[in-house]
TrEMBL record:
Protein name per UniProt: Extracellular solute-binding protein
Superkingdom of the organism of origin: Bacteria
InterPro entries assigned to the protein according to its UniProt record, in alphabetical order: Bact_solute-bd_prot1, SBP, TAT_signal
Pfam families per UniProt: SBP_bac_1
Keywords: Cell membrane, Lipoprotein, Membrane, Palmitate, Signal
Signal peptide positions (record): 1-31
The keyword Membrane is assigned to this record: yes
Record flagged with keyword Metal-binding: no
Taxonomic lineage: Bacteria, Bacillati, Actinomycetota, Actinomycetes, Kineosporiales
Source organism of the structure: Pseudokineococcus basanitobsidens
Length: 450
């Protein structure tokens, strides 16, 4: 087989029925539906009824905006628990039974897992290529494998830093521009008041660590030829691990209050937490902190200034509207999903009713996000901070079909860092040693190349 890089996979790979059969046979990136051809659009005059399973709040109100305009394509939203809280279990059960919805909310990092279970439709076959240019390139690459796209980007989470100027000014600091400045500021904040920290570091939620590693320029997983290449101990990742090992060992970050937990909200409300580096969707959640209105501002996240090949931001979170393999109306499902995620009307409805993260469209961030925010002191941070951050992404980061297992295993090891049982450097190295076996349990080939 030809060796394929990440970008060549997107440009010239083959994912037709014959190619899939061969790929599955040699244990490569994963399997996918082997149906040939396409399902035609509904006949003229036929009313198409679609179901969309998702955990977004009030999604039916978004669908109702569409339904009022399109009596020929009616969409019903069906609530499911969030991803790993039970939603994915319901979806995988439906796939196994040959049933399920037309569309489903699937996090970007989990698209390969659904692809491995033959659960998704190649949306390229139904016209996605004609609208792909309307989406952020980094997001399209996250849902593209072997010259096919497997989901429609729905929202994302470019990262930035939410911070309290008043608390940082007490130690003569501003929002840190680099991670080295971040560590010095964290030391100063905690030294001035032992009951205050610059930030919390969630040792159990390794999606944050992965986002920092991606920003630093790491690429942990690369599909090549008939196997996955694994490199979790590259220079970028090890630099990130050493950085946060230092912060945790010195006690200058809080490791007991996970961001967005009740205890964390209380700490934010009484000034014990001065900042939060998170995805764009964190703004709506931060507004739940009692007494914090008007106190926070938003700045670009710190950068790894000493790491060549690093980036200005990273993504934390992000979902897709995935066309499920059991759909009888993929053309119509794609038409709705495209409207919802690229039209001003659809994006505004998603922000208003469902509180989505960052818009996936290249030319519209949402009316509400172009305006100043009263909670953030009138700052128009959507255009000032997050719009540029969305363009500062690591395009080479690829999610494997074992992303959740890697994150869970790494989280188990990271929890012992707090007690001194290990370090993040050692935890990442140990996890890398287990990854090949996890791939093999999925029937896939992998090789550590670090």
């Amino acid at each position: 087989m030809t060796t394929l890089s990440r970008r060549s996979l997107l440009r010239g790979g083959a994912l037709g029925a014959a190619g899939l059969a061969g790929l599955a046979g040699c244990g490569t990136v994963g399997a996918a539906p082997t149906t040939t051809g396409t399902i035609p659009p509904a006949a003229s005059g036929e009313v198409v009824r679609l179901q969309y399973w998702a955990w977004l709040k009030d999604l039916q109100q978004v669908c109702d905006v569409w339904n009022a305009q399109r009596p020929d394509i009616q969409v019903e939203a069906v609530w499911i628990p969030g991803g790993n809280a039970g939603g994915y279990q319901k979806l995988f059960a439906a796939i196994a039974a040959g049933s399920g919805p037309d569309l489903a909310q699937v996090e970007m990092r989990n698209v390969p897992s659904f692809l491995l279970q033959s659960g998704l439709v190649d949306v390229s076959r139904y016209g996605f290529d004609q609208v792909a240019g309307q989406y952020d390139r980094a997001l399209v690459e996250q849902v593209s494998f072997l010259d096919a796209a497997w989901a429609v980007p729905q929202d994302s989470g470019p990262m930035a830093t939410f911070y309290r100027p008043d608390l940082l000014e007490e130690v003569g600091a501003g929002p840190p521009a680099t991670w080295a400045e971040w560590l010095e500021t964290a030391r100063a904040v905690h030294a001035a008041d032992p009951n205050r920290w610059l930030e919390s570091f969630p040792v159990g939620d390794t999606s944050v660590f992965l986002a920092y590693a991606s920003q630093a320029g790491a690429v942990w997983f690369t599909p090549e030829d008939d196997r996955w290449l694994v490199n979790m101990t590259d220079d970028a990742t090890m630099a990130v691990a050493r950085h946060f090992d230092t912060a945790v060992s010195e006690g200058v970050v809080n490791t007991s209050l996970a961001p967005y937990s009740p205890g964390w909200f209380a700490a934010v409300g009484d000034g014990r937490i001065a900042a939060l580096t998170s995805g764009s969707w964190g703004d709506a959640l931060l507004e739940g902190a009692t007494g914090a209105e008007g106190l926070f501002r938003v700045a670009p996240m710190p950068v790894w200034s000493d790491l060549p090949g690093s980036y200005g931001s990273s993504y934390l979170g992000g979902s897709t509207a995935a066309l499920m393999a059991g759909s009888e109306h993929p053309y119509e499902a794609l038409e709705f999903a495209t409207w919802m995620t690229t039209s001003p009307e659809g994006i505004d409805a998603m922000i208003r009713y469902s509180g989505i993260g960052w818009s996936p469209a290249t030319d519209y961030i949402g009316a509400a996000r172009q305006e100043g925010s009263e909670f953030f002191g009138g700052q128009a941070y959507g255009t000032e901070v997050f719009a540029p951050a969305a363009q500062e992404q690591n395009l080479d980061w690829t999610w494997p079909p074992i992303a959740q297992q890697v994150m869970d295993g790494l989280g188990d090891r990271f929890r012992t860092v707090v007690t001194g049982g290990t370090t993040m450097v050692d935890a990442v190295a140990a996890m890398e040693g287990d990854v090949v076996e996890i791939f093999r349990e999925k029937g896939l080939s992998a090789e550590v190349v670090s």
